[in-house]
Amino acid sequence: MDYRLKTMNQTGKLYLVPTPIGNLEDITFRAIRVLKEVDLILAEDTRTSAPLLKHFDIQKKVFAHHQHNEHQSSNEIIKFLLMGQNIALISDAGTPAISDPGFFLVREALKFNIAVECLPGATAFVPALVNSGFPTDKFCFEGFLPLKKGRQTRYKFLADEERTIILYESPHRLLKTLDEMATYFGADRQISVSRELTKMFEETVRGTVAEIKTYYETHPVKGEFVICVAGKN
């Protein structure tokens, strides 16, 4: 085992390992090495991660760690780390803790002075932002807006944001979200909508909120969406 991963009489290390958001070629050599060398892997959904791990011949114990069990499972994970085991956390796609489980476990590990290392790698909002053509020197990442409580308040706050705004959205809520944007941002606000990033049917559509709404009323609304909104002038 690589000496960088494990040393005698030390606590283990928690690794946050980004996984591809679509194209399997986007995983790094370092990510594959770490996943092969840690003692166990935590996955958001073990069924989703299984094909990826099999593809790269990563044969490790895999346990589920997701938003519904992370508070409970974190206690056991901390015990393993304190015993000297090295653990990698992966999400279904992209970088753990970015609109995915991970933040709580990292915070708990740091409370016990456990080393935490996040590898660089895939995350959906970066290519979407760069593809948008909007300013990238300053931006705010909002992830998924609240589904109900606080959603209207958040829109009102963001309406005056001068930086580029980045949002995540699911396909079944896209058209409703575009309607809400027209209400709070204005139908003529420029946006860029990316879906299926790095995959075969990757698509980025740019235009006003009204134009994008019209486009997706007649085109497939499939895949995960990243919406970039031009800041208020």
Automatic annotation (TrEMBL):
Keyword check for Isomerase, yes or no: no
Q: Report the CDD domains cross-referenced here.
A: RsmI
Entry-linked SUPFAM superfamilies: Tetrapyrrole methylase
Q: Where in the cell is it found?
A: Cytoplasm
Where is each Tetrapyrrole methylase domain found?
13-212
Q: In this record, what's one Pfam family?
A: TP_methylase
UniProt keyword annotation of Ribonucleoprotein present: no
Reaction(s) this enzyme catalyzes, per UniProt? cytidine(1402) in 16S rRNA + S-adenosyl-L-methionine = 2'-O-methylcytidine(1402) in 16S rRNA + S-adenosyl-L-homocysteine + H(+)
Single biological process term from Gene Ontology: methylation
GO-annotated molecular function: methyltransferase activity
Question: Which superkingdom is the protein from?
Answer: Bacteria
Q: Which Gene3D superfamilies match?
A: Cobalt-precorrin-4 Transmethylase, Domain 1 (3.40.1010.10), Methyltransferase, Cobalt-precorrin-4 Transmethylase, Domain 2 (3.30.950.10)
What EC numbers are recorded for this enzyme? 2.1.1.198
Keyword entries, A-Z: Cytoplasm, Methyltransferase, rRNA processing, S-adenosyl-L-methionine, Transferase
Function summary? Catalyzes the 2'-O-methylation of the ribose of cytidine 1402 (C1402) in 16S rRNA.
Homology family: Belongs to the methyltransferase superfamily. RsmI family.
Return the protein name: Ribosomal RNA small subunit methyltransferase I
Species this chain originates from? Mucilaginibacter calamicampi
